[in-house]
Amino acid sequence: MKVLVVGGGGREHALAWKIAQSPRVKQVFVAPGNAGTARDATNVPIEVTDKAGLIKFAQDEAIAMVVVGPEIPLVDGLVDDMEAVGIRVFGPSKAAAELEGSKVFCKNLLHTANIPTATYHTFRSAEQASRYIWERYCDPNDPVPVVVKADGLAAGKGVIVCGTRAEALDAIDRIAGQREFGDAGKELIIEERLTGQEASVLAITDGETIVTLPAAQDHKPAYDGDTGPNTGGMGAYCPTPIIDEEMMARIEADVLVPVVHAMKRARRPFKGVLYAGLMLTPGGPKVLEFNVRFGDPECQPLLMRLKTDLVDVLEATIDGRLSEIEQLEWDERPSICVVMASEGYPSSYEKGREIKGLDAADAIEDVKVFHAGTKTIDGKVTNDGGRVLGVTAMGDTIAKAKLQAYRGVKEIRWQGAWCRKDISDKAR
Questions:
Q1: For residues 337 and 236, is the Cβ–Cβ distance under 8 A?
Q2: Average pLDDT over the chain, rounded to whole?
Q3: Distance between CA atoms of residues 258 and 248, nearest Å
Q4: Statement: residue 141 has pLDDT above 90
Q5: Which terminus, N or C, of the chain has the lesser number of Cβ atoms within 10 Å?
Q6: Residue 57's closest CA among 37, 26, 38, 85?
Q7: Where are the domains of the chain?
Q8: Cα 131 to Cα 128: distance, rounded to the nearest angstrom
Q9: pLDDT tens-digit profile of 255-270?
Q10: What is the CATH code for 197-324?
């Protein structure tokens, strides 16, 4: 069969790489792809927002299955439009994707379904939100432990953690006043800041059966020690020891099952990947957010460890027969992904700088370099985004996997390249 993966980041490179390993797959296309997917698959110069172009390509090439990677085309209804013309596609409908597309919708659903989450208030203007902060936190010297979130999609950057009134007011102004994240700031949420360790639990569901994947831990803040601004993710590892079998059973019972049932009751049945971003608080796990696709960079270490044919799982989800597949098989060794970023990220950065050492890194045992923001110019691989590479490795222990990943990192260089040095240290 022929498979089309929609997207051009590290998640899509990992998906294309894993799908290509299936003996049932003849050819994998990636639209638009990057310099890495060009090595492991065939790139197609069609943007993720070009629904008509993607549909025409799938029809012309007799694509047997489309896998939609990023959130933007999911929220925009690509799955609905493809299904309408008979194309088999993995991912949630536009109505179901609102679980990620609107934080206000997500929080309201969590509240209605009695799923544990932070207390929150929603606002339609910067003035309303600022008034709430001034009235709720009268003394400027008192701590203001809140998180201000843009309602819509903001590439993982529309969440600002605050500790003072000045920080909260600045966050409100950035999101809803200056519209730093565009229309994502038409509405915003102010919620209590939860304390604890964050973890990511991903599950694949066909709307009836839920297949939970091993828990991972992402690293959102830019710098070591979880300092600096939020990013799309600076690295991840899997599995994480902070979620044991008992905790996972609790998350399934209190979070995953209720949200799938709630979406069904809301007439938005969910098919695809359900990603729960969780805070493990002293009172138990609470939902920070839901995503409706594989996380990036969580996807990379997850798929490194998956031994089951991914195509079988994706097709069973599309067909609504996930209950029929055998239990997923995983490599027992842990895996770690270290994101290498462009100088200046998550703010402005320069593109077009040549990347060297990729082949040397890939040649290291149990290392795979997944490309995210890369492009080939005149035969040379260059940086073309903020998060550029996800150097992913496996090892007998988390410490050994980390050592292998950073061995790969040391082989790679370009002007301004940087990364966090403490990915997976929370596991100790």
A1: yes
A2: 96
A3: 14
A4: no
A5: C
A6: 85
A7: 2-93, 125-186, 197-324, 335-427
A8: 5
A9: 999 999 999 999 999 9
A10: 3.30.470.20
Half-sphere exposure of 280 (CA within 13 A, CB side): 17
pLDDT of the residue at 195:
93
Closest CA to 3 of 323, 327, 309: 309
What beta strand segments (E) does 39-145 contain?
42-43, 65-68, 89-90, 120-123
Judged against a pLDDT cut of 80, whether residue 377 lies above it is answered with yes
Q: Is 204 exposed, middle or buried (0-12, 13-18, 19+ CB in 10 A)?
A: buried
Give the span between the Cα atoms of 3 and 31, in whole angstroms.
11
Single out the residue of 218, 221, 185 nearest to residue 103, CA to CA: 185
Burial label for 365, CB within 10 Å (0-12, 13-18, 19+), is exposed
Residue type, 391: V
Please state, in angstroms and rounded to a whole number, the distance separating the CA atoms of residues 254 and 351: 44
- φ, ψ dihedrals at 332, nearest 5°: -70, -20
The conformation of residue 306, written as its DSSP 8-state character, comes to: B
- Calpha distance 16→231 (Å, rounded): 24
Per-residue pLDDT at 138: 85
Contact call for residues 198 and 278 (beta carbons, < 8 A): yes
Task: Give the pLDDT of residue 421.
Answer: 98
Q: What are the strands, taking DSSP E only, across 108-207? A: 120-123, 146-150, 159-162, 188-192, 197-205
Q: At what angle do helices 103-112 and 257-265 cross, to 10 degrees?
A: 100
Q: Tell me the β-bridge partners of 341.
A: 387, 418
CA distance 30 to 7: 7
Instruction: Assign a CATH topology to domain 2-93.
Output: Rossmann fold (3.40.50)
Whether the Cβ atoms of residue 260 and residue 210 lie closer than 8 Å to each other = yes
Q: 55-77 pLDDT, tens per residue? A: 999 999 999 999 999 999 999 99
Residues 385 and 375: their CA atoms lie apart, in Å, by 9
- Tell me how far apart the alpha carbons of residues 393 and 404 are, in angstroms, rounded to a whole number: 6
Task: Give the Cα-Cα-Cα angle 236, 239, 243 (nearest 5 degrees).
Answer: 110
Tokens encoding 349: 């950065």
- Whole-angstrom distance, CA of residue 61 vs CA of residue 246: 46
- Angle at the Cα of 35 (from 224 to 352), degrees rounded to 5? 70
Tell me the average pLDDT across 185-196. Answer: 95
**Phi/psi at 62 (5° precision):** 50, 50
Please give the backbone phi and psi of residue 156, each rounded to the nearest 5 degrees, phi first: 80, 5
- 3-class state of residue 213 by DSSP: coil
Instruction: Tell me what the mean pLDDT of segment 240-259 comes to.
Output: 96
Q: What is the CATH number of domain 335-427?
A: 3.90.600.10
